[in-house]
Amino acid sequence: MLKSLMIATDLSERSEKALQRAAALAKRFDCPWSVLYVVDDEQPAALVEQEQIQVKLLLEARLVELATAGGSAPAIRVEKGDPDQKIVACALQDEADLLVVGAHRKSVLRDIFVGTTVERVVRAGELPVLMVNQPVGGEYRDLLLALDISPASAHAVRIAEQLGLLGGAVCRGIYAFSPLAKGMMQYSGISEERIDEFVGSETRQAVDELKAFLRDQQLEPLIDEQLVAVGLPGNVLERMVAKHRPDLLVMGTRGMGGIKRALIGSVADYALRELDCDILVVPPKADE
């Protein structure tokens, strides 16, 4: 079960949703929690010090409210430094099992060139990160588990279970596959009937692959519904989120090496940027 968590806030409305979710999790699991604010130190020292004082006063003024919401008062940490690096360092220092963050502000050009704080924290690959998009409407009861037939995706499911997030929830495992030969067959003038037969055969093979994967990884008891869908992973996840409206999407990162590893990373980036559900992103084991 979840033993400790940290919420990194920038005091925005987006972070407020994350703060409320962190409080709900702390109360549910009766665990210690902390609230972190990082002052960017790339500004005059006097401004850094002033911001630290003001933020600490603001957060301490909410301690009674936060203690009620979380079942216990959180530790308040106001640090200075590079936000991305400091957030990860503080979470590790506090031995947090989970880092909770708010959704990032949409800014296409900035995101393309430098990425977002959320994505950079996730890429650090140190601990599970829960990005909160939605207001708290209760416990997580409907989960979508992204599976790519890799050890990393199996590890993500196990971590979600260890954190206690699968308990009492309906868990759907989704495996996306793309029959690459389908496009070539279409351009080669092959009949739609033959193409449909090919896709059907590929789908049956994908179903068998998913079943074998879940069996080999001993994940079958954790999955209530096994789903296989044709399409690129990001597109499939978008369709499944729109269809099932899960409370939480669970996914691993960097499940494979080389070009495939970059592809898996891009799927996680896409999900963090585009999907509007809460997302738990779990880095792979150090040896994967």
List the topology elements:
Elements: E1 5-8, H1 13-29, E2 33-40, H2 45-60, H3 63-70, E3 75-81, H4 83-93, E4 98-102, H5 108-114, H6 117-123, E5 129-132, E6 142-147, H7 151-162, E7 170-177, H8 181-187, H9 192-216, E8 225-230, H10 233-244, E9 248-252, H11 258-274, E10 278-282
Pfam families: Usp
Organism: Pseudomonas panipatensis
Protein name: Nucleotide-binding universal stress protein, UspA family
Relevant terms:
Rossmann fold, 288 residues, Universal_stress_UspA, UspA, 11 helices, 2 domains, single chain, 20% strand, ATP binding, 10-stranded mixed β-sheet, elongated, Nucleotide-binding universal stress protein, UspA family, alpha/beta
